[in-house]
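Changelog excerpt

This revision adds worked examples to the README so contributors can see how folded entries look when concatenated. The first example is reproduced verbatim below.
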Amino acid sequence: MSKLGVLYLVPVPIGNYDDITLRGLRILRECDVIACEEFREARRLLSHLQIMKPLIGVDEHTEEEATKEVLRELESGKRVALISDAGTPVFSDPGLFLVRAAITRGVSVVPLPGASSLLPALIASGFRSDAFVFVGWLSPKRDERRRELDKLKHEWRTLVIMDTPYRLLALLRDATDVLGRKRRAAIAFDISAPAEEIVRGRLDELRKRFEASPRKSEFVLVIEGAV
Protein backbone atom coordinates (compact mmCIF):
# COMPACT_ATOMS: atom_id res chain seq x y z
CA MET A 1 0.00 0.00 0.00
CA SER A 2 1.40 3.39 -0.99
CA LYS A 3 2.11 6.02 1.61
CA LEU A 4 -0.73 8.49 2.12
CA GLY A 5 -0.27 12.05 0.98
CA VAL A 6 -0.82 15.23 2.99
CA LEU A 7 -3.71 17.70 2.86
CA TYR A 8 -2.51 21.26 3.48
CA LEU A 9 -5.01 23.98 4.38
CA VAL A 10 -3.44 27.11 2.92
CA PRO A 11 -4.83 30.60 3.59
CA VAL A 12 -4.56 32.99 0.66
CA PRO A 13 -4.72 36.81 0.55
CA ILE A 14 -8.07 38.51 1.06
CA GLY A 15 -7.26 41.82 -0.57
CA ASN A 16 -3.52 42.23 -0.99
CA TYR A 17 -1.34 39.60 -2.66
CA ASP A 18 1.55 40.61 -0.39
CA ASP A 19 -0.30 38.96 2.51
CA ILE A 20 0.63 35.46 1.34
CA THR A 21 2.96 33.89 3.90
CA LEU A 22 6.37 32.52 2.96
CA ARG A 23 5.31 29.08 4.14
CA GLY A 24 2.04 29.24 2.23
CA LEU A 25 3.95 30.22 -0.90
CA ARG A 26 6.36 27.32 -0.44
CA ILE A 27 3.54 24.79 0.02
CA LEU A 28 1.75 26.01 -3.10
CA ARG A 29 4.99 25.65 -5.06
CA GLU A 30 5.84 22.21 -3.69
CA CYS A 31 2.42 20.52 -3.64
CA ASP A 32 1.30 18.19 -6.42
CA VAL A 33 -2.31 19.33 -6.72
CA ILE A 34 -4.30 22.38 -5.62
CA ALA A 35 -7.95 22.02 -4.60
CA CYS A 36 -9.66 25.37 -5.06
CA GLU A 37 -13.04 26.98 -4.53
CA GLU A 38 -13.30 28.63 -7.95
CA PHE A 39 -11.00 28.05 -10.90
CA ARG A 40 -11.02 31.69 -12.01
CA GLU A 41 -9.93 33.09 -8.64
CA ALA A 42 -7.35 30.34 -8.16
CA ARG A 43 -5.82 30.88 -11.60
CA ARG A 44 -5.64 34.62 -11.01
CA LEU A 45 -3.74 34.14 -7.75
CA LEU A 46 -1.47 31.39 -9.06
CA SER A 47 -0.67 33.40 -12.17
CA HIS A 48 0.40 36.30 -9.97
CA LEU A 49 2.57 33.93 -7.92
CA GLN A 50 3.91 32.29 -11.10
CA ILE A 51 2.73 28.84 -10.03
CA MET A 52 1.26 26.21 -12.35
CA LYS A 53 -0.40 23.17 -10.78
CA PRO A 54 -3.27 20.81 -11.62
CA LEU A 55 -6.51 22.12 -10.10
CA ILE A 56 -9.52 20.34 -8.63
CA GLY A 57 -12.64 22.41 -8.01
CA VAL A 58 -14.13 22.07 -4.52
CA ASP A 59 -17.05 24.44 -4.09
CA GLU A 60 -20.22 24.29 -2.00
CA HIS A 61 -22.13 22.59 -4.83
CA THR A 62 -19.53 19.97 -5.82
CA GLU A 63 -17.64 19.35 -2.58
CA GLU A 64 -18.97 15.87 -1.90
CA GLU A 65 -18.18 14.59 -5.40
CA ALA A 66 -14.89 16.51 -5.62
CA THR A 67 -13.78 15.02 -2.30
CA LYS A 68 -13.65 11.59 -3.94
CA GLU A 69 -11.24 12.93 -6.56
CA VAL A 70 -9.06 14.65 -3.96
CA LEU A 71 -8.99 11.51 -1.81
CA ARG A 72 -7.76 9.49 -4.77
CA GLU A 73 -4.86 11.90 -5.10
CA LEU A 74 -4.11 11.76 -1.38
CA GLU A 75 -4.32 7.98 -1.25
CA SER A 76 -1.81 7.76 -4.09
CA GLY A 77 0.66 9.75 -2.00
CA LYS A 78 0.09 13.18 -3.52
CA ARG A 79 0.42 16.42 -1.57
CA VAL A 80 -2.75 18.49 -1.96
CA ALA A 81 -3.15 22.15 -0.99
CA LEU A 82 -6.70 23.33 -0.31
CA ILE A 83 -7.36 27.03 -0.89
CA SER A 84 -10.48 29.19 -0.91
CA ASP A 85 -11.15 32.24 -3.07
CA ALA A 86 -9.85 34.44 -0.27
CA GLY A 87 -8.74 33.95 3.30
CA THR A 88 -8.64 30.70 5.23
CA PRO A 89 -10.16 27.58 3.65
CA VAL A 90 -12.89 25.65 5.51
CA PHE A 91 -13.53 28.65 7.80
CA SER A 92 -16.97 29.74 6.51
CA ASP A 93 -15.86 28.33 3.15
CA PRO A 94 -16.00 24.94 1.42
CA GLY A 95 -13.70 22.19 2.64
CA LEU A 96 -15.22 20.75 5.82
CA PHE A 97 -16.52 17.63 4.06
CA LEU A 98 -13.08 17.07 2.54
CA VAL A 99 -11.24 17.58 5.84
CA ARG A 100 -13.55 15.15 7.64
CA ALA A 101 -13.10 12.55 4.91
CA ALA A 102 -9.32 12.96 4.99
CA ILE A 103 -9.24 12.53 8.77
CA THR A 104 -11.41 9.41 8.51
CA ARG A 105 -9.01 7.92 5.94
CA GLY A 106 -6.01 8.62 8.15
CA VAL A 107 -4.61 11.38 5.94
CA SER A 108 -2.47 13.98 7.68
CA VAL A 109 -4.23 17.37 7.66
CA VAL A 110 -1.85 20.31 8.10
CA PRO A 111 -3.37 23.78 8.73
CA LEU A 112 -1.29 26.86 7.97
CA PRO A 113 -1.83 30.23 9.68
CA GLY A 114 -2.55 33.17 7.45
CA ALA A 115 -4.99 35.71 6.09
CA SER A 116 -8.45 36.12 7.60
CA SER A 117 -10.75 39.12 7.88
CA LEU A 118 -12.05 38.13 11.32
CA LEU A 119 -9.04 38.82 13.55
CA PRO A 120 -7.96 42.09 11.88
CA ALA A 121 -11.52 43.40 12.27
CA LEU A 122 -11.65 42.29 15.89
CA ILE A 123 -8.33 43.74 17.02
CA ALA A 124 -8.96 47.05 15.26
CA SER A 125 -12.46 47.43 16.71
CA GLY A 126 -11.28 48.73 20.07
CA PHE A 127 -13.37 46.12 21.89
CA ARG A 128 -12.26 43.15 23.97
CA SER A 129 -10.48 40.52 21.92
CA ASP A 130 -9.57 38.16 24.76
CA ALA A 131 -13.12 36.81 24.81
CA PHE A 132 -15.38 36.94 21.77
CA VAL A 133 -18.12 35.00 20.01
CA PHE A 134 -17.86 34.33 16.31
CA VAL A 135 -21.52 34.45 15.34
CA GLY A 136 -20.84 33.94 11.66
CA TRP A 137 -23.73 34.46 9.26
CA LEU A 138 -27.14 35.14 10.72
CA SER A 139 -30.30 34.02 8.96
CA PRO A 140 -31.19 35.94 5.78
CA LYS A 141 -34.82 35.92 7.00
CA ARG A 142 -35.67 38.97 9.10
CA ASP A 143 -37.75 37.29 11.82
CA GLU A 144 -35.27 34.47 12.32
CA ARG A 145 -32.35 36.91 12.28
CA ARG A 146 -33.98 38.99 15.00
CA ARG A 147 -34.57 35.87 17.10
CA GLU A 148 -30.91 34.94 16.73
CA LEU A 149 -29.85 38.44 17.79
CA ASP A 150 -32.21 38.31 20.76
CA LYS A 151 -30.37 35.23 22.03
CA LEU A 152 -27.17 37.31 21.99
CA LYS A 153 -28.68 40.35 23.69
CA HIS A 154 -27.05 39.69 27.07
CA GLU A 155 -23.81 38.16 25.78
CA TRP A 156 -20.92 39.91 27.56
CA ARG A 157 -18.29 38.84 25.06
CA THR A 158 -17.58 40.78 21.87
CA LEU A 159 -19.74 39.67 18.94
CA VAL A 160 -18.27 39.13 15.47
CA ILE A 161 -20.80 38.86 12.64
CA MET A 162 -20.31 38.37 8.92
CA ASP A 163 -22.84 38.66 6.11
CA THR A 164 -23.17 39.47 2.44
CA PRO A 165 -22.64 43.12 1.42
CA TYR A 166 -26.26 43.70 0.39
CA ARG A 167 -27.59 42.77 3.84
CA LEU A 168 -25.53 45.28 5.82
CA LEU A 169 -28.33 47.80 6.30
CA ALA A 170 -30.92 45.17 7.24
CA LEU A 171 -28.47 43.73 9.75
CA LEU A 172 -27.77 47.15 11.28
CA ARG A 173 -31.47 47.92 11.59
CA ASP A 174 -32.18 44.63 13.35
CA ALA A 175 -29.11 44.89 15.60
CA THR A 176 -30.12 48.42 16.61
CA ASP A 177 -33.67 47.35 17.45
CA VAL A 178 -32.75 44.14 19.27
CA LEU A 179 -29.41 44.89 20.95
CA GLY A 180 -30.06 48.56 21.65
CA ARG A 181 -29.27 51.74 19.78
CA LYS A 182 -26.47 52.78 22.14
CA ARG A 183 -24.48 49.56 21.73
CA ARG A 184 -21.09 50.38 20.24
CA ALA A 185 -19.90 48.66 17.08
CA ALA A 186 -17.25 48.74 14.38
CA ILE A 187 -17.61 47.74 10.75
CA ALA A 188 -14.45 46.65 8.93
CA PHE A 189 -14.85 47.00 5.18
CA ASP A 190 -12.60 45.36 2.57
CA ILE A 191 -9.87 44.31 4.98
CA SER A 192 -6.43 44.39 3.34
CA ALA A 193 -7.81 45.77 0.07
CA PRO A 194 -7.13 49.31 -1.22
CA ALA A 195 -10.64 50.38 -0.14
CA GLU A 196 -10.16 49.17 3.44
CA GLU A 197 -12.02 51.27 5.99
CA ILE A 198 -13.10 50.76 9.59
CA VAL A 199 -16.14 52.73 10.70
CA ARG A 200 -16.95 52.97 14.41
CA GLY A 201 -19.90 54.30 16.35
CA ARG A 202 -23.13 53.41 18.11
CA LEU A 203 -25.43 51.04 16.26
CA ASP A 204 -28.01 53.77 15.65
CA GLU A 205 -25.31 56.10 14.29
CA LEU A 206 -24.03 53.44 11.92
CA ARG A 207 -27.55 52.60 10.78
CA LYS A 208 -28.30 56.25 9.98
CA ARG A 209 -24.98 56.67 8.21
CA PHE A 210 -25.57 53.78 5.84
CA GLU A 211 -29.23 54.61 5.34
CA ALA A 212 -28.08 57.99 4.06
CA SER A 213 -25.14 56.58 2.11
CA PRO A 214 -25.54 52.85 1.34
CA ARG A 215 -22.40 50.81 0.87
CA LYS A 216 -22.04 47.36 -0.65
CA SER A 217 -18.63 46.02 0.32
CA GLU A 218 -17.32 42.92 2.03
CA PHE A 219 -17.56 43.56 5.76
CA VAL A 220 -17.17 42.22 9.27
CA LEU A 221 -19.43 43.68 11.97
CA VAL A 222 -17.94 43.74 15.47
CA ILE A 223 -20.29 44.61 18.33
CA GLU A 224 -19.23 45.35 21.89
CA GLY A 225 -20.50 42.87 24.45
CA ALA A 226 -23.32 43.70 26.84
CA VAL A 227 -22.27 45.58 29.97
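The second example, added in the same revision:
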Amino acid sequence: MRHEKILVVEDDREIGKLITTQLTSLNLHVDHVVSAELALKKIAKHSYGLILLDINLPLMDGLSLCRKIKEHYPTTSVILLTALSSDMDRVIGLEMGADDYICKPFFARELQARVKTQLRHRAQLLASQNNDNSPVDSEQKLNVGSLNIEFSSHQVYLGKQALNLTATEFDLLVYFARHPNHVFSRQQLLDKVWGYQHSGYEHTVNSHINRLRAKLEEHQQAPIIETVWGVGYKLNPSQLN
Protein backbone atom coordinates (compact mmCIF):
# COMPACT_ATOMS: atom_id res chain seq x y z
CA MET A 1 0.00 0.00 0.00
CA ARG A 2 1.44 3.36 -0.99
CA HIS A 3 1.84 5.89 1.81
CA GLU A 4 -1.39 7.88 1.51
CA LYS A 5 -2.75 10.72 3.58
CA ILE A 6 -6.13 10.14 5.21
CA LEU A 7 -8.49 12.82 6.50
CA VAL A 8 -11.01 11.95 9.21
CA VAL A 9 -13.92 14.41 9.48
CA GLU A 10 -15.67 13.55 12.75
CA ASP A 11 -17.08 16.02 15.26
CA ASP A 12 -16.90 13.52 18.13
CA ARG A 13 -13.30 13.95 19.23
CA GLU A 14 -13.10 10.58 20.99
CA ILE A 15 -14.33 8.68 17.92
CA GLY A 16 -11.99 10.71 15.73
CA LYS A 17 -9.07 9.85 18.00
CA LEU A 18 -10.00 6.16 17.94
CA ILE A 19 -10.19 6.08 14.13
CA THR A 20 -6.87 7.90 13.88
CA THR A 21 -5.21 5.31 16.12
CA GLN A 22 -6.68 2.41 14.13
CA LEU A 23 -5.45 3.81 10.81
CA THR A 24 -2.00 4.96 11.89
CA SER A 25 -1.37 1.32 12.79
CA LEU A 26 -1.52 0.70 9.01
CA ASN A 27 1.40 3.12 8.52
CA LEU A 28 -0.92 5.80 7.13
CA HIS A 29 -0.65 9.53 7.77
CA VAL A 30 -3.96 10.58 9.36
CA ASP A 31 -5.33 14.08 10.02
CA HIS A 32 -8.48 14.68 12.06
CA VAL A 33 -10.82 17.69 11.93
CA VAL A 34 -14.19 18.25 13.59
CA SER A 35 -16.13 20.23 10.95
CA ALA A 36 -16.73 20.50 7.22
CA GLU A 37 -15.27 24.00 7.18
CA LEU A 38 -11.99 22.81 8.68
CA ALA A 39 -12.02 19.85 6.30
CA LEU A 40 -12.27 22.12 3.24
CA LYS A 41 -9.30 24.15 4.47
CA LYS A 42 -7.24 20.97 4.95
CA ILE A 43 -8.24 19.57 1.55
CA ALA A 44 -7.21 22.82 -0.16
CA LYS A 45 -3.71 22.52 1.31
CA HIS A 46 -3.06 18.77 1.21
CA SER A 47 -3.63 15.88 -1.18
CA TYR A 48 -5.67 13.17 0.53
CA GLY A 49 -6.14 9.70 -0.90
CA LEU A 50 -9.14 8.96 1.29
CA ILE A 51 -11.57 10.93 3.43
CA LEU A 52 -13.65 9.32 6.17
CA LEU A 53 -16.65 11.54 6.61
CA ASP A 54 -19.28 11.61 9.34
CA ILE A 55 -22.71 12.42 7.93
CA ASN A 56 -23.98 14.30 11.01
CA LEU A 57 -21.61 17.26 11.14
CA PRO A 58 -22.51 20.68 12.58
CA LEU A 59 -23.29 23.56 10.18
CA MET A 60 -22.44 22.01 6.79
CA ASP A 61 -23.54 18.36 6.90
CA GLY A 62 -21.46 15.46 5.66
CA LEU A 63 -23.59 14.84 2.57
CA SER A 64 -23.05 18.40 1.32
CA LEU A 65 -19.34 18.08 2.00
CA CYS A 66 -19.23 14.77 0.12
CA ARG A 67 -20.77 16.43 -2.93
CA LYS A 68 -18.20 19.26 -2.84
CA ILE A 69 -15.31 16.83 -2.51
CA LYS A 70 -16.43 14.71 -5.44
CA GLU A 71 -17.05 17.78 -7.62
CA HIS A 72 -13.53 19.12 -7.12
CA TYR A 73 -11.49 16.00 -6.25
CA PRO A 74 -13.12 13.09 -8.10
CA THR A 75 -10.22 10.66 -7.58
CA THR A 76 -10.29 11.10 -3.80
CA SER A 77 -12.12 8.19 -2.17
CA VAL A 78 -14.84 8.94 0.38
CA ILE A 79 -16.16 6.57 3.05
CA LEU A 80 -19.22 7.78 4.96
CA LEU A 81 -19.51 7.17 8.70
CA THR A 82 -23.19 6.67 9.48
CA ALA A 83 -25.57 5.61 12.22
CA LEU A 84 -27.29 2.25 11.91
CA SER A 85 -30.70 3.90 11.52
CA SER A 86 -29.80 6.29 8.69
CA ASP A 87 -30.62 4.14 5.64
CA MET A 88 -31.78 7.10 3.54
CA ASP A 89 -28.64 9.11 4.31
CA ARG A 90 -26.48 6.19 3.21
CA VAL A 91 -28.35 5.85 -0.08
CA ILE A 92 -28.19 9.60 -0.77
CA GLY A 93 -24.49 9.69 0.09
CA LEU A 94 -23.67 6.85 -2.27
CA GLU A 95 -25.72 8.48 -5.02
CA MET A 96 -23.73 11.69 -4.45
CA GLY A 97 -20.56 9.79 -5.25
CA ALA A 98 -19.35 8.35 -1.94
CA ASP A 99 -17.37 5.17 -2.53
CA ASP A 100 -18.58 3.31 0.53
CA TYR A 101 -20.03 3.66 4.01
CA ILE A 102 -19.50 2.05 7.38
CA CYS A 103 -22.00 1.93 10.23
CA LYS A 104 -21.21 2.98 13.77
CA PRO A 105 -20.24 1.23 15.94
CA PHE A 106 -17.69 -0.72 13.90
CA PHE A 107 -14.81 -3.08 14.55
CA ALA A 108 -11.25 -1.95 13.88
CA ARG A 109 -10.63 -4.79 11.41
CA GLU A 110 -13.70 -3.87 9.38
CA LEU A 111 -12.66 -0.22 9.18
CA GLN A 112 -9.11 -1.15 8.21
CA ALA A 113 -10.33 -3.58 5.53
CA ARG A 114 -12.56 -0.95 3.94
CA VAL A 115 -9.81 1.65 3.96
CA LYS A 116 -7.37 -0.81 2.35
CA THR A 117 -9.92 -1.64 -0.35
CA GLN A 118 -10.54 2.00 -1.27
CA LEU A 119 -6.83 2.80 -1.32
CA ARG A 120 -6.26 -0.19 -3.59
CA HIS A 121 -8.95 1.06 -6.00
CA ARG A 122 -7.35 4.51 -5.97
CA ALA A 123 -3.86 3.09 -6.58
CA GLN A 124 -5.17 1.19 -9.61
CA LEU A 125 -6.81 4.32 -10.98
CA LEU A 126 -3.71 6.49 -10.51
CA ALA A 127 -1.44 3.83 -12.00
CA SER A 128 -3.60 3.59 -15.11
CA GLN A 129 -3.74 7.37 -15.48
CA ASN A 130 0.06 7.37 -15.45
CA ASN A 131 0.00 4.75 -18.22
CA ASP A 132 1.36 2.08 -15.92
CA ASN A 133 0.03 -1.46 -16.05
CA SER A 134 -2.66 -2.08 -13.48
CA PRO A 135 -1.18 -3.85 -10.43
CA VAL A 136 -4.03 -6.35 -10.44
CA ASP A 137 -4.22 -7.12 -14.13
CA SER A 138 -1.78 -8.18 -16.83
CA GLU A 139 -4.47 -7.94 -19.54
CA GLN A 140 -4.42 -5.03 -21.93
CA LYS A 141 -8.04 -5.13 -23.12
CA LEU A 142 -11.32 -6.89 -22.43
CA ASN A 143 -14.04 -6.82 -25.08
CA VAL A 144 -17.65 -7.97 -24.80
CA GLY A 145 -19.47 -7.04 -27.98
CA SER A 146 -19.48 -3.24 -28.26
CA LEU A 147 -18.11 -2.86 -24.71
CA ASN A 148 -14.35 -2.27 -24.74
CA ILE A 149 -12.30 -2.04 -21.55
CA GLU A 150 -8.69 -0.85 -21.73
CA PHE A 151 -6.73 -1.61 -18.57
CA SER A 152 -3.57 0.37 -19.31
CA SER A 153 -5.51 3.64 -19.71
CA HIS A 154 -8.36 2.71 -17.34
CA GLN A 155 -10.80 3.64 -20.10
CA VAL A 156 -14.15 2.11 -21.02
CA TYR A 157 -15.84 2.56 -24.38
CA LEU A 158 -19.37 1.63 -25.35
CA GLY A 159 -19.10 1.65 -29.10
CA LYS A 160 -17.22 4.90 -29.77
CA GLN A 161 -18.45 6.62 -26.60
CA ALA A 162 -16.02 6.93 -23.68
CA LEU A 163 -17.52 6.38 -20.22
CA ASN A 164 -16.30 8.34 -17.21
CA LEU A 165 -16.23 5.74 -14.42
CA THR A 166 -14.93 5.88 -10.89
CA ALA A 167 -12.37 3.30 -9.79
CA THR A 168 -15.03 1.19 -8.07
CA GLU A 169 -17.44 1.39 -11.02
CA PHE A 170 -14.60 0.32 -13.31
CA ASP A 171 -13.79 -2.72 -11.15
CA LEU A 172 -17.47 -3.65 -10.92
CA LEU A 173 -17.93 -3.49 -14.69
CA VAL A 174 -14.75 -5.50 -15.27
CA TYR A 175 -16.02 -8.24 -12.96
CA PHE A 176 -19.33 -8.45 -14.81
CA ALA A 177 -17.58 -8.38 -18.20
CA ARG A 178 -15.33 -11.28 -17.22
CA HIS A 179 -18.40 -13.35 -16.34
CA PRO A 180 -21.12 -12.49 -18.90
CA ASN A 181 -24.55 -13.99 -18.21
CA HIS A 182 -23.41 -15.12 -14.76
CA VAL A 183 -25.77 -13.99 -11.99
CA PHE A 184 -24.11 -12.64 -8.85
CA SER A 185 -25.80 -11.90 -5.55
CA ARG A 186 -25.08 -8.63 -3.74
CA GLN A 187 -23.05 -10.50 -1.14
CA GLN A 188 -20.95 -12.19 -3.83
CA LEU A 189 -20.21 -8.80 -5.41
CA LEU A 190 -19.27 -7.32 -2.03
CA ASP A 191 -16.87 -10.20 -1.53
CA LYS A 192 -15.32 -10.26 -5.02
CA VAL A 193 -15.27 -6.56 -6.00
CA TRP A 194 -15.05 -4.78 -2.66
CA GLY A 195 -13.28 -7.56 -0.78
CA TYR A 196 -15.79 -7.45 2.09
CA GLN A 197 -17.11 -10.54 3.78
CA HIS A 198 -19.44 -8.58 6.06
CA SER A 199 -23.18 -8.72 5.44
CA GLY A 200 -25.49 -5.73 5.80
CA TYR A 201 -23.86 -3.43 3.23
CA GLU A 202 -26.04 -4.20 0.21
CA HIS A 203 -26.77 -0.49 -0.34
CA THR A 204 -23.16 -0.14 -1.48
CA VAL A 205 -23.77 -2.61 -4.32
CA ASN A 206 -27.21 -1.22 -5.20
CA SER A 207 -26.02 2.37 -5.48
CA HIS A 208 -22.92 1.57 -7.52
CA ILE A 209 -24.92 -0.58 -9.92
CA ASN A 210 -27.51 2.19 -10.31
CA ARG A 211 -24.78 4.72 -11.11
CA LEU A 212 -23.04 2.33 -13.51
CA ARG A 213 -26.32 1.56 -15.28
CA ALA A 214 -27.08 5.27 -15.66
CA LYS A 215 -23.72 5.87 -17.34
CA LEU A 216 -24.11 2.87 -19.65
CA GLU A 217 -27.67 3.75 -20.59
CA GLU A 218 -26.76 7.32 -21.53
CA HIS A 219 -25.48 5.76 -24.75
CA GLN A 220 -27.65 2.64 -25.03
CA GLN A 221 -31.21 2.37 -23.76
CA ALA A 222 -31.32 -1.42 -23.58
CA PRO A 223 -30.33 -2.62 -20.08
CA ILE A 224 -26.82 -4.08 -20.12
CA ILE A 225 -26.72 -4.97 -16.43
CA GLU A 226 -29.94 -6.77 -15.62
CA THR A 227 -31.63 -7.53 -12.33
CA VAL A 228 -32.54 -11.17 -11.78
CA TRP A 229 -35.23 -10.76 -9.15
CA GLY A 230 -34.59 -12.60 -5.93
CA VAL A 231 -31.08 -13.59 -7.03
CA GLY A 232 -28.87 -10.67 -8.08
CA TYR A 233 -27.40 -9.04 -11.19
CA LYS A 234 -25.81 -10.10 -14.46
CA LEU A 235 -24.28 -8.55 -17.58
CA ASN A 236 -26.33 -9.46 -20.66
CA PRO A 237 -23.92 -9.69 -23.63
CA SER A 238 -26.79 -9.94 -26.14
CA GLN A 239 -27.42 -6.21 -25.54
CA LEU A 240 -23.86 -5.39 -26.66
CA ASN A 241 -24.03 -6.50 -30.29
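Reviewer comment on example two: The chain has two domains: 5-127, 133-240. The radius of gyration is 18 Å.
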